[in-house]
Amino acid sequence: MNKRQARLFAIVSTAIASVVFLGLTLDSHRQFDKLTNASTITDQVTRGKDVWHNNNCINCHTLFGEGAYYAPDLTKITQLRGEAYLRAYLKDPAKFYDENKHRRLMPRQNLSDGDIVSLIAFLDWVSKVDNQGWPPRPLLVTGATFPGSDRGAGASAPAAAPGGGAEDPVALGEAVFRGAVPACTACHSTAPNVNMAGPSLAGLASRTQSLLTSSDYHGQAKDLAGYIRESVLTPSAHIVPGAMYSADGKSFMPATYPSTLKPEQLDHLVAYLSTLK
C-alpha cells in the first residue's frame, strides 16, 4: 500500500467509524426515556435525587458502578432490601451493625422521614432503569461473599439427593436460592455466624427443630418444611429476634415471593434449605 492508498484508507475508516459512533449515539438518545422509565420520574423521585447529592452519598457509594468504591453499589438496593429495611436502616444505621466488630462506618445522616421516603423513591427508580446488567459486581455487605462462594470457611455444603444431576431437587433449590428475585443470597449467608440483612441459615434444620417446640415460636408451622414455607410466604408470622431483621412487628423479608416463585420452585427451595444442618 503506497502513501496515497494509506491516506485514503485512514480517511475512509475514520469516516465510517464516525458515522457508526454518531448513529449509536443518536440511537441511545432515542431510547433514553424508555430505558430510564422517564415517565415515572415524579417530584418525589427528583427530591430523592437532591437528598442523595446533598448528603454526598456518592462519596462512599456507587450507582451503576459510578462513584466511590468505599461502600456497596446501590443500583439495585431497593429490590434487594425492600422499603421497610431501608427506612429503618437510614433512620439509624448503628442498630444494624456492631461498628467495633464490623467497622461499619455508615454515618447517621439525621434525615427527616420525608427525606428518607424521597431517597428510597429515587433509589427505587434507579433500580428499575434498564442498565443491561451493569454493574456486574453483586452487592457486598459485611460478611458477604460473591455468589457461589457464600458458604465460607466453616460452612458445610448441602447434602445432595441420591443420584444427583440436573433434576436433583436440592441442586435445583440451591439455584433458586441464588437466582430468585431478589436472590436469597442478597440477605442470607449459609456460613456460620455470618449475619447480613437476614440471619445466617447455617444450621437452619437443627435450630428449627428446637424453635418449633419452644414458647418463643409464634407461627403455625409444625415441621421444618412448613417453617421454611411460612418464612418465605408469610415472613412476619414469626419474627426472628434482632433489631436488624424487623421493625414494628414486620419482617424485613420481602413479601413478594408468593407471586414470584412457582410452586415447584418453592418445593426445591425447601428441599435445599432443609439440608442446612
Automatic annotation (TrEMBL):
Record Gene3D superfamilies: Cytochrome c-like domain
Keywords linked to the UniProt accession: Electron transport, Heme, Iron, Metal-binding, Transport
UniProt-recorded Gene Ontology molecular function terms: electron transfer activity; heme binding; metal ion binding
Top-level taxon of the source organism: Bacteria
Keyword Membrane carried by entry: no
Chain ranges of the Cytochrome c domain: 43-127, 168-277
PROSITE patterns: CYTC
UniProt xrefs under InterPro entries: Cyt_c-like_dom, Cyt_c-like_dom_sf, Cytochrome_c550/c551-like
A Pfam family of this chain: Cytochrom_C
Name of protein: Cytochrome c
Organism: Rugamonas apoptosis
Lineage: Bacteria, Pseudomonadati, Pseudomonadota, Betaproteobacteria, Burkholderiales
